[in-house]
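Progress report, Aim 2. The chain analyzed during this reporting quarter is listed below.
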Amino acid sequence: MTGGPPEVTLRVRRSEPGVTKQRWESFGVPLADRTTVLDALFWIMRERDRSLAFRCACRAAMCGSCAMVVNGDERLACKTGLAGLATPIRVEPLRSLPVVKDLVVDMDAFFDRYQAVEPVVRTDERLAEPAIISPLDPTRLEIGAGLDCISCGACYSACPMVAADPDYLGPAALLRAFNVLADQRESPGPAPAREAVFGRHGIWRCHGIQECTRVCPKALDPALAIRRLKRRARSGEFGS
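Predicted structure tokens for the chain:
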């Protein structure tokens, strides 16, 4: 008795805004050792439907391009294996961002909020000498724990407050805000970034649900960074 390789079913949410309505389309995909969701999408595009749209670049969990929702959770398609996922496997675009086509979303809103926190250090002009930063400094260790963000948008998609408040800065932007504002080289005083971070749609919008931390593919903790911003704002260290 012979047969082909085992298969799993991928249900992909398809749409082309203004052209087609959202629909689910199912594909039987061969299951081989270490097959990832991204591998499966490429197989569908090659063998079944060349019009399927999705993003990828590095295929090494470094660029964040292939972030999408798999079985209800935000994941990187390139590092998510098919084996072990409940079937049928549901693949959807990131949430709270406009869909361009199928699994491709428009990331402009995400990056607009990232830019709103002025994500670069404004050097304190009062410093007469270069800052000497010990790698063992507690604040430097806190900053270092959040520097591996790849801007994939998974936390933004998973955050219930982003869904409820389209103007909320979101976890990735606030994680970066903590890294900048806690830096000892940062210039104190008023700045548009501080107004955004501590304003109506900044840190106080976070309810501590921690979905951002749960789905981060780099195991970062944006929720902790936001709590640190709140504590320092209350103490007057950052202003409010």
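The chain has a mean pLDDT of 92. Residues 117 and 194 are 7 Å apart (CA to CA). These observations will guide the mutagenesis work planned for the next reporting period.
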